[in-house]
């Protein structure tokens, strides 16, 4: 490893330990999300637009967790290699990192916007329950259109983002590394630097819009659940089912925004900090903690569904129960 000061060594050691912790969390998340997807893929679950959207979120979470785990393992292996050089990488290692940036950005875009729009449109459909809008949202075709639109926007936006922000270039200053090279860096041109500032600032703007949708949806759904709970004696089966659906959406939405505030702060502070010769260590550490929160969030959705949805629990029992029980449930 090249000679660095104590602050940088501490930051890299913190990064290494955070990735060591993050890998088993990612493995756990991949396993739970595969289970989650199998439950959501059942015919009884696909009839609900809410669970259809959750299936899209689940697929995005799997992409995020697999790409994050691969990137963490790559870093851990390189960190322990005798020729490790932190500022540069091989050509294929650099290309792998760019692919990770694309997959991670794509999956986070899809999962966050799907969760926000699910809650936002659900809130509007309740508020205007007597209008045609409420009927439109209750259709599976609406959920499919939302999923396709968000996925296409996420794909092309992140593709453009990676093409402009990142390029594989030789370092301007030859590093003093134990290995012979050749070495490369990501985005060494002025165009790449300007694109990173613009896209990072734009990401912060879009996340502010998400925050607005989130705030409205959270307040409205919380008020709806509170008012519905006061009428518990008068509620029929359908009203109770609706209340549980709103609670499920609310608890699915909340973990996304456990890291939304620090993400917004990071995106707006980056254009300022980029003019410094080195990003402060506290910012680097915060970014690693943020990544861990994202991994935990992507691993938690099946647990939320099990706790909040009786329909989901019934489907899980059918899927995971003995074959005789499953065949009896299907025939019944």
Automatic annotation (TrEMBL):
Single GO cellular component term: membrane
Protein name: G-protein coupled receptors family 1 profile domain-containing protein
GO function term, MF aspect, one: G protein-coupled peptide receptor activity
Record localization: Membrane
Source domain of life: Eukaryota
Alphabetized Pfam families for the sequence: 7TM_GPCR_Srw
Alphabetic keyword roster: Membrane, Transmembrane, Transmembrane helix
PROSITE patterns the record matches: G_PROTEIN_RECEP_F1_2
Predominant cellular place of this UniProt entry's protein: membrane
Keyword Ion transport: no
Keyword Membrane: yes
Organism from which the protein derives: Caenorhabditis remanei
């Amino acid at each position: 490893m090249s000679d660095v000061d104590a602050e940088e060594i501490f930051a890299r050691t913190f990064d290494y330990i955070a990735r060591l912790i993050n890998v088993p969390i990612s493995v756990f998340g991949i396993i739970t999300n595969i289970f989650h997807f199998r439950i959501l893929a059942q015919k009884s679950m696909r009839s609900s637009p809410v669970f259809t959207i959750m299936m899209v979120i689940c697929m995005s979470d799997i992409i995020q967790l697999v790409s994050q785990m691969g990137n963490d393992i790559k870093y851990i292996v390189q960190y322990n290699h005798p020729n490790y050089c932190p500022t540069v990488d091989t050509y294929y290692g650099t290309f792998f990192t760019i692919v990770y940036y694309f997959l991670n950005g794509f999956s986070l875009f899809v999962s966050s916007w799907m969760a926000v729009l699910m809650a936002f449109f659900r809130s509007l459909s309740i508020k205007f329950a007597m209008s045609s809008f409420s009927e439109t949202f209750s259709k599976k075709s609406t959920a499919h259109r939302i999923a396709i639109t968000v996925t296409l926007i996420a794909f092309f936006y992140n593709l453009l983002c990676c093409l402009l922000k990142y390029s594989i270039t030789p370092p301007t200053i030859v590093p003093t590394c134990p290995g012979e090279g050749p070495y490369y860096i990501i985005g060494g041109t002025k165009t790449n630097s300007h694109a990173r500032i613009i896209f990072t600032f734009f990401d912060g703007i879009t996340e502010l819009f998400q925050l607005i949708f989130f705030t409205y949806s959270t307040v409205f759904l919380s008020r709806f659940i509170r008012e519905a709970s006061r009428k518990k004696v008068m509620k029929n089966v359908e009203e109770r089912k609706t209340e549980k659906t709103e609670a499920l959406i609310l608890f699915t939405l909340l973990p996304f925004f456990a890291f939304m505030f620090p993400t917004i702060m990071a995106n707006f502070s980056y254009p300022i900090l980029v003019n410094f010769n080195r990003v402060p260590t506290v910012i680097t550490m915060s970014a690693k903690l943020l990544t861990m929160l994202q991994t935990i969030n992507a691993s938690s959705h099946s647990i939320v569904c099990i706790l909040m949805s009786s329909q989901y629990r019934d489907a899980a029992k059918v899927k995971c129960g003995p074959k005789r029980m499953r065949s009896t449930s299907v025939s019944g």
